Every structure is written in structure tokens, then in C-alpha cells.
Amino acid sequence: MKRIVTLGLALVCHFAVAQSEETAKIEVLYGGYFSKSEDNYPGASIFERDESGPVRFRHKGALLDCDVAYLYADENRLEAYGNIVFNQGDTLILNSKELIYSGITRLAEAKQKVRLTSPTSTLTTETLYFDRKNQEAYYPSFGKLIDEENTLKSNKGRYLIEQSLYRFEESVTLENEKFNLVSDRLDYHTEDEVADFFGPTTITGEDYTFYFEQGSYDTKNEKGYGKINTKINYDLRKLFGDSIYFNQLENYAAASGQVRVLDSINESRLSAAFAEIFKAKDSLVATGEAIIAKRVENDSLYVHASYLFVTGPDKARDLFAYPNARFFKTDFSGKSDSIVVTNEKGITELIGNPIIWSGESQLTGNYIYFTNTPETNALDSLYVIENAFIATLDTIAQIGYNQAKGVNLQGKFLSNGLESALLDKNAEVIYYLYDDKGALIGINQTTCSAIRLNFEEGEISKITFLRNPNGTLYPYADFPEDQKLLEGFQWFGEERTRDLESFIEKIKGLKK
Fold first, then answer.
1. Model confidence over 182-211: pLDDT tens digits?
2. Distance (Å, rounded) from C-alpha 237 to C-alpha 253?
3. Which of 123, 224, 226, 482 is 20 to 30 A from residue 368's alpha carbon, by CA?
4. What is the pLDDT of residues 265-279, one digit of tens each?
5. Which of 412, 407, 402 has its CA nearest to residue 384?
6. Of 333, 388, 382, which is closest to residue 501 (Cα–Cα)?
7. What burial class does residue 257 get, using C-beta atoms within 10 Å of its C-beta: 0-12 exposed, 13-18 middle, 19+ buried?
8. Architecture of domain 237-353 in CATH?
9. What angle do CA 122, 128, 133 make, to 5 degrees?
10. Do 395 and 360 touch, CB atoms closer than 8 A?
């Protein structure tokens, strides 16, 4: 074995063939011990490290150190072994135990304990293909990338060096102190630690789970967006949408498109075109054909308005719906300028031009609210404050309206239908009376201090006059035409929705 002590002319002439204009040759900068073995390695010059250090080569600005190297000068190819350090400038260092490098294609194949180090991250794997010409590195088997914040793993991946971009594929995971994620494929920008996703992805934090099939996430600042089958479990709610934006540091999430929000604790569900959740404020805002449904005994109460605002802690959330607010429940519906639902107290308020339909009856007044029992959410009581008015269409002959009015009204529900109502202070009634065969007897007009009404199947079945009644039963033909409607009467039958389908259609019609 011959020892090469200096770089001298012998190296330049025999082993570091000068660069041509077409292809640069691999240069030997330090050869250590030199030998040849044509029987075992035909055409190869063999270099081994000595006491002064490792063997060193140079090609197109890159340096390679190793323990043993086989240089095939005619093929412009190098095989290196043991403690390999492949240095491309000051920005990229490749370590491995084995490496094959072509000076023609500028492609390196590294194996065994491969480590690729850049200024911001380190990749480890067992096999890595490094294409210096296109500045790409590829690993076909398991690899792990570690940077300041994150640890990423995948079954295969690619590093686009000039873009500072890693492309991870197959069983991708990302872990850090704040959250973990799994994905089919993601592009990771090492400079700003932003990941772009192209396949089913789940991000799991301390108090949230974010799923989507396409999107982007700033892993350093915990914010991003998702599209396609997007959902997030957040603030004890499940938020669905065509797209969702999420910012964990600001405790904020927003969804657009076909939005749904499920609240299992409060047994409610919401749909809208756009919704925002403000976790720190225990609040949610929804717009665009927004509807919220809450379980009420064996039924559901639906509320709609231009804006739905839900706020409050778990099991005590309140709802503010405005303007153009509406609600619907089987055989019980209404509308007003705004609706306020206080869940903890079991109170629903209709504020501003309120109207309620119960069975066949229409109720109006200056202010209306109804209550439910907190335990079962069953409707309990109804209150109409000032200018209370009940009207029903005479359903037998359909020639007029049964009417009752007073200052205030208090009603009671049974099986979620209005069972009775008490009208007090200056009560008045106009009522069409029929005999058992359905023949019209006449029209009763009465004033009284208070009146009790009983209902069956949504219609007035009985009237009880309390305290100082004064009334007259008129034959239909004798009743003055200008007195058939009590003062303040208004009929809003065309505004009523009798089933959920027409309620939805009414909401869509309001948007037009």
C-alpha cells in the first residue's frame, strides 16, 4: 500500500482528473493510504484514511469525507464507506455509513444511519437519494425530521432544498408539546413551520380535535384552515363546515358553507352558512339561514333569525336571535323582532311585535314569553304582557273570527299544547256559538274583568267569565258588521308555518 502524503502534481494528474467544460470530474483533495486491486475492484483507486484524517473529495462545490473510498475515475463515480460527511456549502450536511456518488448525474445514494442536516432541521433515515442537480432528496422508507418545534415521521418523503420544503407521504405524523397530527400527505415548510395537507388529516390538541382532507396549518402559532369533510371538536361542541378556520391561541374557530354545530351537553344543533366560536367568551355567532334546534321533551324547538348569538357556560347557554326571529315546534310556533332563550331559567322571550300560534289560536301582545321545566324542557306556562289578544278562525262556518282580549294573559301547557289561558283586566270576547249539530246559534259579545279559556286540540272549547260579566248573544244576522272585529285585531295567518318543511322554506324565502 502506498501512502499519499501531499496533494501534489501526482494527484492532479492521476486521480483528480481536471474538470472539463461538459462534466466536472471528482477531485481527490486528500487520499491518505492509496492502493489498487484489479482482481476485486477493477478500475478503482482505493483510498483509506490515515493518522492525519479522513479521505476527502470535492465535486462541484461539495466536499465529501469518509474512511474508505473507491474512485472509478473513468466512470466519474465514487463509493464511500464509514463516517461519511457530505457537505454542500454551509447549509446542508449529509452523514451516513455508505454512499455512492456519480459525478455525471450528481446523484448520491446514502445508506445506513443517514442524517441530513440543514440550518433549521435534521432528517434521519436508512436510505436517502440526493439529487444535487435538481436539489432534491428522497427517502423511500421510514424517516424522521426534527426541528425546533416539531417531530415529523413518515414512510417516505422528499426534500425540495431550494424551497425549504419537505413532502411527507404515507402514515405521516407530527408531534410537539402542544398537539399531535396524523395525515396521508403533507408539505412542510421548514422556515416558517407551516404544513399544507393533501389527504385525510387529524390534528389533536389538549382540548380540540380538527379533521379535514385539504388545508394548511401554522404549527408554530396553532392556526390554519381545512376544507373537504371538515369538522372540529371544540369547546365541547362539534363544528362542521365546507371550510373551517381555526386559531387556538386566540380561542377562535369559524366555519363557512354548509355549517353545523352540535352541542351534546345542551342537546342542541345549529345549521347556518357561517358560524364563529369565541371559546374564551363562551360564545357562538351564526348567520345565513341560521337555525338552531333544541330538544324539548319528545320534540324539538327550532329558532331562526338573521343572527344567532349563543353565549354562556355549559348547561347554561343563552340564545339571542335577531332580527326577523322565528321559532317552530309541532303545533306551536311564533315570530318577533328578536327572541331570547335563557336556558338556565327555562324562559323564552319574544321581543318586538311578537306573534304566537298554538293549535288554531293566534296570540299577540306587546311582550310574550313562555317557560319550560328545566328537568324535561317540557313547555309549562305562557305569558302575554299588555294588549293580550287571542284570535282563531271560526273553523265550522268560516265566516268570522273568535276573539278574546285583555291587558295580560297567563296560559298553561299540557303535553306541549296550550290547555288554558286567563285573560285579566278589561277582558272582551267575540265568540261564534254552535249547537251540537253544528248549526250557528249566534255571536256572543261580552266584557268582563277576567276570562278563562280552555282549549282542546288547539281550539277554544270553553269560555268562563269571571267577575262582573256583561254580554249579549246576537243572532248572526243582527250582529253589527263594524263590531265583528275587536279593536286591535290583526290576522297573520299567512305568516304561519305549520310544519318544519314550510318553516325552512319560509326562511329561504326571507333571503330572496
1. 999 999 999 999 999 999 999 999 989 999
2. 11
3. 482
4. 777 899 999 999 998
5. 407
6. 333
7. middle
8. Sandwich (2.60)
9. 95
10. yes
Whole-structure pTM value: 0.81
Classify 504 as helix, strand or coil. Answer: helix
List strand residue ranges (DSSP E) for 176-267, in order.
179-189, 194-205, 208-218, 223-234, 237-247, 252-263
What's the chain's average pLDDT?
Answer: 90
- Same fold for the pair 1-117 and 237-353: yes
245-248: long-range pairs with CB below 8 Å, 24+: 246/208, 246/210, 247/221, 247/222, 247/223, 248/178, 248/179, 248/205, 248/208, 248/222, 248/223
Exposure class string for 345-363: b at 16+ Cβ within 10 A, else e: ebbbbbbeebbbbbbbbbb
Across the range 390-397, mean pLDDT stands at 85
Q: Specify the pLDDT at position 255.
A: 97
Q: Write phi, then psi, for 176 (nearest 5 degrees).
A: -150, -175
Quote the pLDDT of residue 398.
80
The top-level CATH class assigned to 1-117 is: mainly beta
Q: Where are the domains of the chain?
A: 1-117, 237-353, 388-492
Per residue in 76-85, pLDDT (tens digit) is 999 999 999 9
Are the CB atoms for 296 and 266 separated by under 8 Å?
no
- In the three-class reduction of DSSP (H, G, I as helix; E, B as strand; rest coil), residue 47 is classed as strand
Cβ burial 119-141 (10 Å sphere, 16+ → b, else e): eebebbbbbbebebeeebbbbee
Distances (CA, A) of 276 to 207, 251, 279, 482: 17, 11, 10, 53
Measure the CA–CA gap between 417 and 405, rounded to whole angstroms.
20
For 363-392, write each residue's pLDDT tens digit: 999 999 999 887 777 889 999 999 999 999
For 88-97, the CB contacts below 8 A with 24+ separation are 88/61, 88/62, 88/132, 89/61, 89/62, 91/118, 91/119, 92/116, 92/117, 92/118, 92/161, 93/117, 94/128, 94/130, 96/128
From CA 109, how far away is CA 130, in angstroms rounded? 6
> Which three three-digit cell numbers place residue 166?
419537505
